[in-house]
Amino acid sequence: MMKFKKQIILFLCFCSFAVKSQNTYKRWPEIIRKNEVVWFGSDEAKRIAENVLLYQRDIGGWPKNIQMQEELTEKQKKDLIALKKTAVETTTDNGATCQEMLFMSKMYAQIKDERYKESFLKGLNYLLEAQYPNGGWPQFYPLKKGYYTHITYNDDSMVNIMNVIKAVADETDYYSIKPSKEIVDKCKKSFDKGIDCVLKTQYKQNGVLTAWCAQHDETTLAPANARAFELASLSGSESAKIVLLLMSIDKPSREIVTAVKSAVEWFEKTKITNLEEKRVLNDAGKIIDKKMIPVVNGGPIWARFMDLETNEPFFCDRDGIKKKSIDQIGSERRNGYSWYSDAPKEVLKRFPDWAVKNGTKVGAAEKKNVNYITVAQDGSGDYTKIQDAVYATPAFPYEKVTIYVKNGIYNEKVRIPEWNNNVILKGESKENTIITFDDNFSKIALGRNSTFYTSTLLVEGDDFTASNLTIKNASGERGQAIALSVIGNRAKIINCNLLGNQDTLYLSGKEAKQYFKDCYIEGTTDFIFGGATALFENCIIHSIKSSYITAASTPAGTAFGFVFKNCKLTANPDAKDVYLGRPWRIYAKTVFINCEMGNQIKPEGWENWSKPEAEKNSFYAEYNCTGEGFQPSKRVKWSHQLSKKEAGQYSINNILKDKIANWYLN
């Protein structure tokens, strides 16, 4: 009796396993994605895997819309073997290739058949080979004539590819097959190129970033037509999957953040809440009609096709003529195509948490304690003007606030007030992010102190950093005209161009410490002047004409004034008589250490500005400089050549020492 009971239990267990391992889905994509893991070790799965292997071309890709689970005749098998070398109809459209790779991965996880692994890797290589140099993918590869060559977002083709490549590049466990490090590295480069293409194809509508089109020209990246009823347009459906892909990237760049934010704003702008799709089905469950019914507070839904300039939904028959509503096209296209989508709902659902994590806005409401603000003239940032971004910066923030300025020429005066401390003003590139204005002494005309009102950028707030910028006063040789005025304490200017003529750079502030590194500073007369303690490291100091480089007004008793270390002093050809400095105030301090001086520097080096008392009270010195302009024996007698021990006192810590330790390193 006990033996009989055991047999029954074993039989029931077998039946249970058999039930679990049966395929209960009819369509090929469902079989891949919905079957339980155990099914992929079943005999049925192995039979289907043989079909999948047969359908894969030697190039690595598969054709689309094939029900791989269907039984094949011997003739069909023979025909498929003959097709393997041809690469006929290999594609990523409608999920092809990507879904077969997933199937092979699931098979290999259950059955270590090396053919499954090889099949997956061939598919991956196919995807990598198919990518355009600009990062996009065509719908068919090898290339098939017609619209198939366009970069294809339609039906999520490119997003599907990039999700595969991202999983491999990130070395996740999503796929059971682990490629070599070489292939992983290829995937990383491929994914980055793909993201670059995604960002470049985001459509600008009147200068404002919006969404994406189903197809983009593979050369120009412009929106492109596909089939007659698929005209170039903004796509609600495909754009959603693109944004979700961008949101999946860990530590996204500011360009990605801007792209996502801009797309979300477009989704909000174009959502439809007053219509609902009603489908009429026959007895067999087939759609025989679609109608859009007016509703209140419905959806939201989005149109599949929206006009590139107006965002107005449109619909087409096979004649390619735009219609304004779905009921204006014939039943064949009306019922046989998806004209609306709710896919962007998922984007809007995830966006608030993503936005907080990545320091951007949620909808139109600015989150508190904003610590990252983007300025872009094309409307893709938070603001189009730098000063507007400054106005939006919190007063006395606990953390650094970055204002990221995208490339462009910003013709504006900018002021960073005292209450806007901890500001980082960061340009996209030193050469192409330019802040410029043309105020000068005569133009301001506010009396004898007009000079101090002329600055293009005025920094009053402490703990300020500027990098990758050109700051210019464009007034030309029209008298005193400041490009950058820094009054705040603990200011850092890194990798910037400071351009002007007379009085280019003004440095002040009571006991202020300021640090300039890897900058290019040019001007004519006294183009670096003021009373702050400032260290210049690895800078190019360029004289446009014969005159004076510095005019320090160092307060009495201050340990250091202007210190130039490892700088290069250059000049225009006609600037032949340049002084290192003269004292704006009699306690001026200026020192050059390990600097290269061109022959424009006058042998005497320094001038007293008709102030004999400055010769006793100022401190002008040099140490270990080089170049034709370094003539220590011919310098004015009241200047100094430092000893090695004395020069050793001019360390960055000694010069810039402050109550906040090592602030210049943060």
From TrEMBL:
Keywords: Aspartyl esterase, Hydrolase, Lyase, Signal
Residue span, Pectinesterase catalytic domain: 373-657
Residues the record marks as active site: D526
InterPro entries, per the entry: Pectate_lyase (IPR012669), Pectin_lyas_fold (IPR012334), Pectin_lyase_fold/virulence (IPR011050), Pectinesterase_Asp_AS (IPR033131), Pectinesterase_cat (IPR000070), Pectinesterase_Tyr_AS (IPR018040)
EC number(s) per entry: 3.1.1.11
GO molecular function, one term: pectate lyase activity
Signal peptide annotation: 1-21
Reactions this protein catalyses: [(1->4)-alpha-D-galacturonosyl methyl ester](n) + n H2O = [(1->4)-alpha-D-galacturonosyl](n) + n methanol + n H(+)
Domain of life, per lineage: Bacteria
Pathway: Glycan metabolism; pectin degradation; 2-dehydro-3-deoxy-D-gluconate from pectin: step 1/5
Keyword check for Lyase: yes
PANTHER family: ACYL-COA THIOESTER HYDROLASE YBHC-RELATED, PECTINESTERASE 53-RELATED
Family: Belongs to the pectinesterase family.
Protein name as it appears in the record: Pectinesterase
Lineage summary: Bacteria, Pseudomonadati, Bacteroidota, Flavobacteriia, Flavobacteriales
Gene encoding the protein: pelA
